[in-house]
Write a structure and sequence with these properties.
The protein is mainly beta and 149 residues long. The protein has one domain: 60s Ribosomal Protein L30, Chain: A. It has one helix and eight strands, in the order E-H-E-E-E-E-E-E-E. It has one helix at 27-38; strands at 13-21, 43-59, 64-70, 77-88, 94-103, 109-130, 135-139, 144-148.
Length: 149
């Protein structure tokens, strides 16, 4: 039997915001600040570029198993793919949830939930703003904040 989604939202993109982040900027914080400044209450985030530090987690039932990667001088952690969502949290502020795939300086891949990412040398970020307000609220059944309409 097919599963019915918890909710469905039909909308069309209202705008696309393009950000170029500079060395030392924190990726999640920068996206959140841009969303707040531009009034983006819901959207899709896509990014590529480079990081000098990445903290990536995999959820293990109650907490994240965290791995920290740091590039040495002259190296870059390639941000090969970042995909996420923007919704408003319970206080009405933009909440960014992003997953990444990175390539370490020795070409090993790593991926997971982005907890923190320090840009270096740059990151190109695209925010597709939606004409709807999505909320991110705690779902007690899974113990995590989840999207709702």
């Amino acid at each position: 039997m097919p599963r019915v989604p918890a909710f469905e939202v039909a909308t069309y993109p209202s705008s696309v915001v393009v950000l170029r982040l500079r060395p030392g900027e924190e990726l999640l914080e920068s996206v959140s600040q841009a969303a707040s400044k531009l009034g983006v209450r819901s959207g899709l985030v896509i990014a590529i570029g480079g990081l000098r530090r990445a903290e990536v987690g995999v959820f293990k039932g109650r907490e994240y198993d965290v791995a920290v990667y740091e590039a040495k001088e002259g190296e870059t952690i390639e941000l090969t793919s970042a995909l996420g969502s923007i919704a408003v949290d319970e206080s009405g502020k933009p909440s960014v949830h992003m997953h990444v795939t990175i390539s370490l300086p020795d070409h090993r891949p790593a991926s997971g939930h982005l907890l923190r990412g320090i840009v270096g040398p740059l990151a190109e970020v695209f925010i597709v703003s939606l004409d709807v307000t999505l909320k991110r609220v705690l779902d007690p059944s899974i113990g995590l904040p989840a999207l709702s309409a």
